[in-house]
Amino acid sequence: MTMIKTTLAEQAYQELRNRIIQGRLPEGFRLFPNELAVDLGISPTPIKEACLRLEADGLVTTSSRRGMVVRSFDEADVEALYAARILIEKGAVEAAFDAGRFDAPLQEKLADTLAQHKYFAARHSLDDLSKALHHDRAFHSALVDAAQMPIISETHARIVAQTHTVFVSLPGDYSRSVSEHQDILTAITSGNKEAILQALKTHLEMSRRNTLQQVAILKARKSSTA
After folding, report:
1. Where are the alpha helices (DSSP H) in 28-173?
2. pLDDT, tens only, 148-183
3. φ, ψ (nearest 5 deg) of residue 60
4. How far is CA 116 from CA 4, 7, 33, 64, in A?
């Protein structure tokens, strides 16, 4: 794949980020700039720049022994990520509600996103899972973006991308996630602020629990094959 020279580092970053979030570059995968440069049809320099951005996003780690690798997440990481998500999403939703931004166009956008999420969550390939998670992120992003606070939205996007790299490593119960998104949308449609916040909190706490279970299963699998 040959890229446009004016945005090599940006395009390399987007491509590698997508591969990580979609599970095509799994946790522990070593990122060799020279090999990736051949794969993407560019020089190693923009690859190195992209990896530094991915490290800042929390998707890549660097060690003296292994170099740059796709990050692994443990239980403490998951707890911290969800604590941040709950604070950010509840705060953003409350601000958006108070500003009257959960209007008909936003409700329609959420409904369309939910329909796509539901469709792909019912399928079973890695590509379908990646698409389901894409629409999952879009649903939560729309909620947070409604607060119209770009710094909060950018931080939230990085956090959700990290949690979804865990999801794609070991698929979980996505029918549950879809129904919980529906509960959030139903509460928004009703115009009940407390119901919206409660539905959102319930969903994030269930997602946290599911993700922790996934991490435990991954750890057990690694231990059994060590």
Report:
1. 33-40, 44-56, 75-98, 104-121, 126-145, 150-169
2. 999 999 999 999 999 888 877 665 566 789 999 999
3. -135, 145
4. 31, 31, 35, 42
- CB 205, CB 176: distance < 8 Å: no
* Residues ≥6 apart with Cβ < 8 Å to 14: none
Burial of 92 (0-12, 13-18, 19+ CB in 10 A): buried
Give 6's DSSP letter: G
Cα–Cα dist 225/161, whole Å: 28
Q: Which amino acid is at 71?
A: R
How confident is the model over 90-120, as pLDDT tens digits?
A: 999 999 999 999 999 999 999 999 999 999 9
Question: Whole-angstrom Cα distance, residue 167 to residue 173?
Answer: 10
- Set out the domains of the chain in order of their start, with CATH numbers: 5-70 (1.10.10.10), 75-225 (1.20.120.530)
CA 117, CA 155: separation in Å to the nearest integer?
23
Q: Which residues pair with 60 in a beta bridge?
A: 70
Distance (Å, whole) CA 196 – CA 184: 6
Tokens found for residue 125: 């390939």
Find the helix or strand (DSSP H, E) in which 68 lies.
strand 67-70
pTM: 0.88
